[in-house]
Design a protein that fits this description.
Blueprint lengths: L1 H4 L6 H24 L16 H23 L6
Helix pairs in contact: 2-3
């Protein structure tokens, strides 16, 4: 996101759009990797988005973002 937007540090004003865009990009890249055919010669290392620990982190961020958005929808006070 930094390369595209030029935003080097996320502020309160840019946090939500940057997090949303980052999640969307991660979803798109994950879908792309899932749809590509298997390689004849597997890579020597597992690409980052295919690593279990990275998938778990992404899932956790999505869950937290959904909970955060739900708090906004319900008008529940919270911190950013």
């Amino acid at each position: 996101m930094r390369k595209v937007t030029g935003v080097t540090k996320v502020s309160d004003a840019t946090r939500d759009p940057v997090e949303r865009a980052t999640a969307e990009i991660a979803d798109i890249v994950t879908r792309l990797l899932d749809e590509l055919p298997e390689r004849r010669q597997p890579p020597k290392t597992v690409p980052p988005l295919r690593r279990a620990e990275v998938q778990a982190r992404i899932a956790q961020r999505i869950k937290e973002r959904e909970e955060h958005e739900r708090m906004h929808e319900l008008g529940i006070a919270h911190s950013h």
